[in-house]
């Protein structure tokens, strides 16, 4: 779960936006709280700072331009100029969010390891591609479920792995 | 057919004309002022030459420079686009005198149609209904003018003979206001056009602006390509145009089309032109004026008739017969054009100057975008701040409105303020959906022009997610990584449908 503080020219007080990954199979959903108000949001598309959000059943195209601490958001024909006041990333180990903190990356299907993008000791960010493997004639990229550090690589390129096999062990998250 | 055509214009129309020229294997020659050095139309043309200077007066209005360039580079025809010198009879004549074909009607036709009083008289003689009015020498004195106005019936409209755009125009509700209004209109007209002649017309309440596309050739043939409704205007500037007009029945369409063709033949019109009419609320139509050029909104006609009007212009200018008969022409489906302007709605719609830090056009079936800008383009003070024309076609008007709204929602322009949100609000208005349009539509419905106070939650969420995900572009892949780009890779972020 993380919290982002945003300020606009029309508000004196920064507004807190809390983001929590929702536990969904496609890894695109968030539980969001905006200034205390909860919403469910889904990031349907995201590429080159432009994407689609689904919020309360509505699909909303948007584009974002970052200039250092400033974030300009284009949405519905208007550009909103926001300032990133502070970014506080917190890992909480309470409730359903705790299940999202994982200790390893496991093979979701049997297949062959093609490429390993990280090494022991490397830090990684959420969604960073860690392993590329091939299964049933399809190439799959396995991405990090959250930010962390690599403790151990438990596979090698060319190796055949079973479903559920541990591929990367993560360091214990800092509290 | 011509080998080399010089486009005496800039921006989106220069790009659009160049496209047809290149399709036809004709060399497209462009020109550019200093501020336009890196403009898109310069890169689009096959050759481009500088017009030193910044303002329009120093550059795109210098007819003699175009002729000089044309002679120097072996150009055989000049396309004037719209605005600038497109309705300047002296320029058309100068081209003719230099042995260069001017793509448009004859200089005498341009001259006559540029004078609204002459145009009105010509068309009255041709049996085209005109707005009841009076024109003559205003030196006959105020009492005589009051008599004439009373004959027409109040309210009346004082108009300038030599130009439009609202200059030299006054609405007069009652006789006691007449003298002051005439004097003010004359002063304004003199300042704007160097010609203070005015005339008087019946003022039609809540008129609809419906214009007919005409086309003639040098062999006496003339056709119409149906109508465009252009009623949604602000300060006499068109913002949204469409074809067909929701106000026209097939009978009215036929009557107006025939009247426009009669007008075209009466004046020996050749090449592309537009006959503007106003419709009153009872379905009566009255001739307003003829525009002797290709118009900004010509794409809506192209979309519903499946014709390339620039291509037809070149054919006619090269002496060929009109490439279509009236019987060949049909309207199909519905097209709506939204003009995207870089303007600041919060500051009285003044131009918004800047660099396009991001520019992403919407894509999809039935979407056409004519533009002269791209990512990185500069929007300057010197020229018209129109960025692009979004033209959407669908089988029905409702679908065309839906498509236009969806497209506007995906038309990303950052770095300048635009009227995209405003256009969206207009299209979403129930009265627009109902087709109840007239030239005071925007004032009547007071469609909000400035953004509501505060930032919507969606924008805050988008910013927060962007801050978390960082600048990293998503990794394209097949299979399981659905959090990145959607499964259909596309050149832009809005995968269809």
Please tell me about this protein's structure.
Chain A has one helix and 16 strands. Chain A is an all-beta fold and 175 residues long. Chain A folds into two domains: 2-89; 102-170, RNA polymerase II/Efflux pump adaptor protein, barrel-sandwich hybrid domain (OB fold (Dihydrolipoamide Acetyltransferase, E2P)). In chain A, the strands form three sheets. An eight-stranded antiparallel β-barrel of chain A has the order 1-2-3-4-5-6-7-8. Chain A has a four-stranded antiparallel β-sheet with strand order 9-16-14-11, with no helix packed on it. The longest helix of chain A has 5 residues, at 96-100. The two termini of chain A are 13 Å apart. Chain B is of the alpha+beta class and 497 residues long. Chain B has three domains: 4-103, Rossmann fold; 132-202, 2-Layer Sandwich (Dna Ligase, domain 1); 208-445, ATP-grasp fold, B domain (D-amino Acid Aminotransferase, Chain A, domain 1), CATH 3.30.470.20. Chain B is built from 16 helices and 23 strands. In chain B, α4 runs antiparallel to α5 and α12 packs antiparallel against α13. The radius of gyration of chain B is 24 Å and the shape is globular. Chain B starts with a strand and ends in a 28-residue tail after the last helix. Classes of the chains: A mainly beta (175), B alpha+beta (497). Chains A and B meet through β1, β2, β3, β4 and β5 of A and β23, α13 and α16 of B.
